């Protein structure tokens, strides 16, 4: 299958794409209608438009729940073992911003991992909070960020005992988890609220041999159920697991962040997701884990292919790892591997240099894993037959994947101008520069642009990777000195 970028109209593109029955290793986790049909939710699929209602009698009100939405939120609280759960209609992004607004006072400090999603940086700006960055470990063999260690959190807490909260992403974009239990203990001792961005780990509570941030003692946990479970894109669940934060304050900030017309279709998909987990959890999560074990075992036999994160022979990992993220390194640029997979009707989630990440979800079937294995075997054979084939993309080394840090922090500029990237050293960033995916900012407004940042952005662009905040003329927006 060839990727077709010739469509000028959205619906035409989506209809054609759906008609091709693609194999999805990207978000959302439901992977299409199959899982809804498997468990008898055909009526939902057939009546989508008629279920798109508003707060009519009987439909309850998301911001003053007392009926069907209250019941659903209570079911989620039971599923995750939380004190309170809220249905989200603008994803984990909204849940994170509301959590920051609810826990960090204006001018207060928040300790956050530097590899957080852009919504965290946005929340910190909206809250008028001061970020203190915890550096995640660098996995030098791949140049990607790993876990945030307890010693790094201890250091940040010791240097900033006045911080109000700690915010960690776990699992990260590659499935690497941090020791939340240890970090929760440090947070409790220091009297700080621990917020865990578990956008990628909504399934961990239900996976054999894994544990969720809720179980490990985090105070607030955000779950993008749409990323790995069965609800629709933009739906998510926010869990409050502590009595140290007032549910009323969380609810107040959720109202600030969310549409006053929450989609009943999205919320209905959250109901279906909860029912699938409640009624068929043993079956679906058991199958998912079996499929992953099968995949890792078979993929390990493919010559030249490296799977990051897990030793396929022993299943051992050097750190807590969520195996639902399949990170593949075939020794070629990830964009090239992506093209090869796209040609075969398979669509992965993200690329970092040579690493291509396939994101599995509750809706993937054994046939999907077999299709991916067959494609990888074929690509392996083709590469072995033509080893001298020139790559069209700049090759990525592990060292070149490592993100440099921005320079000094200034006030966020109020007057702006456009400038060539190559002339921007020493300027103050006015519009975030964000490699996307995964969406973790390289430079935020107020941060100084260094020569290393410029070289790194050039490298990403030359490698064909997407970078938000730089236009087609390679210009960026910086502050004007006043
Ligand atoms: C680590 C992380 N956190 C938060 C988000 C935002 O989640 P959502 O898309 O549910 O708003 C993302 C989205 O990709 C993410 O990767």
Give short descriptive properties of this protein.
482 residues; alpha/beta; Aspartate Aminotransferase, domain 2; Ornithine Decarboxylase, Chain A, domain 4; four-stranded antiparallel β-sheet; globular; binds pyridoxal-5'-phosphate
Structure description:
By secondary structure, this protein is α/β, with parallel strands linked by helices. Among the domains are: 44-274, 3-Layer(aba) Sandwich (Aspartate Aminotransferase, domain 2), CATH 3.40.640.10; 403-479, Orn/Lys/Arg decarboxylase, C-terminal domain (Ornithine Decarboxylase, Chain A, domain 4, Alpha-Beta Complex), CATH 3.90.100. Helices cover 36% and strands 15% of the residues. Strands 2-10-9-8-7-3-4 form a seven-stranded mixed beta sheet, sandwiched between helices. Bound molecules: pyridoxal-5'-phosphate (PLP).
Strand content: 5-15%
CATH architectural group of the domain at 44-274: 3-Layer(aba) Sandwich
CATH superfamily of the domain at 44-274: Type I PLP-dependent aspartate aminotransferase-like (Major domain)
Rg is 22 Å
Helix amount: 25-40%
Please outline the major beta sheet.
Answer: 7 strands, mixed
User: Which ions, cofactors or small ligands are bound in this entry?
Assistant: pyridoxal-5'-phosphate
**Contiguous uncertain segments of 5+ residues:** none
CATH class descriptor of the domain at 44-274: Alpha Beta
Find the CATH topology of the domain at 44-274.
Aspartate Aminotransferase, domain 2
């Amino acid at each position: 299958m060839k990727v077709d970028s010739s469509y000028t109209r959205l619906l035409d593109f989506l209809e054609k794409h759906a008609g091709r029955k693609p194999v999805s290793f990207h978000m959302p986790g439901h992977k299409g209608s199959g899982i809804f049909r498997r468990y008898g939710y055909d009526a939902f699929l057939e009546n989508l438009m008629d279920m798109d209602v508003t707060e009519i009698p009987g439909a309850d009100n998301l911001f003053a729940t007392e009926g069907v939405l209250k019941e659903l939120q209570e079911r989620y609280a039971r599923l995750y073992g939380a004190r309170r759960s809220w249905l989200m209609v603008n994803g984990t992004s909204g849940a994170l911003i509301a959590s920051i607004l609810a826990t960090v006072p204006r001018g207060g400090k928040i300790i956050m991992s530097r590899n957080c999603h852009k919504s965290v940086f946005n929340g910190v700006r909206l809250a008028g909070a001061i970020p203190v960055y915890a550096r995640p470990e660098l996995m030098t063999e791949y140049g990607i960020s790993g876990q945030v260690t307890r010693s790094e959190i201890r250091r940040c807490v010791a240097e900033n005992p006045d911080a109000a909260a700690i915010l960690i992403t776990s699992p990260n974009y590659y499935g690497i988890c941090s020791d939340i239990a240890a970090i929760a203990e440090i947070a409790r001792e220091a009297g700080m609220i621990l917020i865990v961005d578990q956008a990628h780990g909504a399934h961990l509570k239900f996976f054999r041999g894994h544990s969720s941030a809720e179980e490990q003692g985090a105070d607030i946990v955000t779950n993008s159920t749409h990323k790995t479970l069965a609800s629709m894109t933009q739906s998510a669940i926010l869990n409050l697991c502590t009595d140290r934060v007032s549910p009323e304050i969380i609810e107040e900030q959720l109202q600030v962040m969310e549409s006053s017309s929450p989609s009943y279709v999205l919320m209905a998909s959250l109901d279906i997701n909860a029912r699938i987990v409640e009624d068929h959890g043993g079956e679906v999560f058991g199958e998912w884990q079996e499929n992953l074990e099968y995949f890792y075992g078979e993929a390990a036999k493919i010559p030249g292919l490296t799977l990051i994160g897990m030793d396929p022979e022993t299943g051992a990992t050097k750190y807590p790892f969520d195996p639902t993220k399949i990170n593949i390194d075939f020794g070629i640029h990830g964009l090239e591997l992506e093209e090869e997979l796209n040609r075969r009707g398979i669509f992965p989630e993200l690329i970092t240099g040579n690493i291509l990440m396939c994101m599995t979800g509750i809706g993937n079937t054994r046939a999907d894993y077999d299709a991916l294995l067959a494609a990888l075997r074929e690509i392996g054979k083709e590469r072995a037959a033509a080893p001298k084939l020139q790559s069209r993309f700049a090759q990525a080394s592990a060292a070149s994947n490592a993100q440099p840090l921005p320079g000094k922090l200034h006030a966020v500029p109020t007057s702006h101008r456009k400038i060539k990237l190559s002339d921007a050293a020493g300027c103050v960033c006015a519009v975030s520069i964000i490699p996307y995916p995964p969406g973790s900012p390289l430079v935020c407004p107020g941060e100084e642009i260094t020569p290393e940042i410029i070289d790194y952005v050039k490298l990403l662009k030359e490698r064909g990777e997407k970078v938000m905040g730089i236009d087609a003329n390679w210009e960026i927006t910086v502050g004007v000195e006043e």
